[in-house]
Amino acid sequence: MKVTLSVLKADIGSVGGHTLPSRKVLAKVEEVVREEVGRLLLDAYVFHIGDDIVLLLSHTRGVRNQEVHALAWKAFREGTEVAKAEGLYGAGQDLLKDAFTGNLHGLGPQVAEMEFTERPAEPFMVLAADKTEPGAFNLPLYLAFADPMYSSGLLLSPELRPGFRFRIMDLAQTERDSYIELDAPERLYDIATLLRDSHRFAIESIWSRKHGEQAAVVSTTRLRNIAGRYVGKDDPVAIVRTQKIFPATEEFGPVFALAPYVAGDTRGSHHMPLMPVRANTPASTFFCVPMVCGLAFSLREGRLSEPVDLFADPVWEAVRAKVVEKAQEMRRQGFFGPAMLPMEELEYTGIAERLKALEREFS
Ligand code: 13P
Ligand code: MG
Ligand code: MG
User: Which residues bind Mg(2+) 1 (predicted)?
Assistant: First the structure.
């Protein structure tokens, strides 16, 4: 059976700062979506990461479907009304346009969608991050799909051995979408050359070379490209199919335990480690350390099993303790050097304006 998974995510307001959506907002969004289960949708699951609400929708309408996107838009709009009534911070933050124009691309919410023929057992996971950018997934996904030091399946399984194709987007191209497709392992150095620059290049999708099947898709929306100014971080989502012809679910653990430094956190203007957390975790008051959560599901005729929280078992408490140290170490140097983003990535204009004024004082 051909199934589409659509993961749609938006920040539509949060309690006491950029922390988490209120229970009432979440309930409203869930209510709107639930009404369509058994009609437009086969199934749905709603959760949050930090201040972002994530909708996982399964259906048979294909990607970029107008009715599915319209439903998500309606849920986010009605949720925004509740957020406004409650006086939540940044109510409607990611809904950057007033009117729905056919699909959610270019309107603000993050979109990651995949259509595939369901396998007899179809395990997959949804990754959702807060206080960071789409390129934050570059290193974990590169290591899981291309590096046998992390992904032993690349050596052990004949299904994985021919490698994976990486489709990488140039986020600096704002006029139209611009992609390159590179095969691992032959083009490994070229892939690394692009992915190291996570502000500019982001993995958009990954494909099995042996089977031509799609393994992963990442949302690549840059809010700044839509709004022309900083309105919040791009807080990406991804869908990753696992097992058999793809890396195993547990092969993604060590790559996320690395917690690489990524762009984001407070005012979207610094570098901090990407901390793996449980789903439905509020943003951290420790300088909004970037966070990623992962929920794995099984799928049967488009219906979702209960989820398993990938970063909830005891190992992750030890990982988090180390990531906290890494985060605190970076914060100790405040605004200096790599702690703050380079000029062209700074989301606030304050420093650029002061520099201009100071340049006039030089003699
Ligand atoms: P969000 O993008 O998660 O709303 O965070 C914005 C911000 O600037 C936090 O300091
Ligand atoms: Mg916010
Ligand atoms: Mg957010």
Answer: 11, 18, 51, 93
pLDDT at 224 exceeding the cut of 80: no
Tell me: the pLDDT tens digits for 279-310? 999 999 999 999 999 999 999 999 999 999 99
Q: Inform me whether the pLDDT recorded for 229 exceeds 80.
A: no
Atom of ligand 1 nearest to the CA of 14: 4
Flag whether 313 is marked binding: no
Strands in the chain per DSSP E: 2-10, 43-49, 52-59, 110-117, 122-130, 164-170, 179-183, 201-208, 214-218, 237-241, 261-264, 270-273, 275-276, 291-300, 303-304, 308-309
* Of 54, 56, 49, nearest in space to 132 by CA: 49
For the chain, the average pLDDT equals 96
Q: Whose CA is nearest to atom 4 of ligand 1?
A: 232
From the CA of 52, give the closest atom in ligand 1.
Answer: 3
Handedness of CA 238, 261, 339, 170 (dihedral sign): negative
Q: Consult the annotation and say whether 51 binds a ligand.
A: yes
Task: Tell me, in angstroms, the distance from the centre of ligand 2 to residue 15's CA.
Answer: 9
Is 273 found in the same domain as 197?
yes
**Domain boundary pick from 117, 141, 176:** 117
32: domain range? 1-117
Separation of CA 326 and ligand 3 centre (Å)? 21
pTM for the full predicted model: 0.97
Q: Is 109 in the pocket of ligand 1 (CB under 6 A)?
A: no
**What is the predicted pLDDT for the residue at 172?**
87
51 lines ligand 1 (CB under 6 A): yes
Residues annotated as catalytic (active site), given as ranges: 11, 230, 233
Helix ranges (DSSP H) in 35-179: 66-85, 138-146, 153-156
Do 202 and 106 share a structural domain?
A: no
* Phi-psi map region of 244: left, alpha, beta (phi>0 left; psi -120 to 50 alpha): left
Angle in degrees, CA 116, 122, 123, rounded to 5: 120
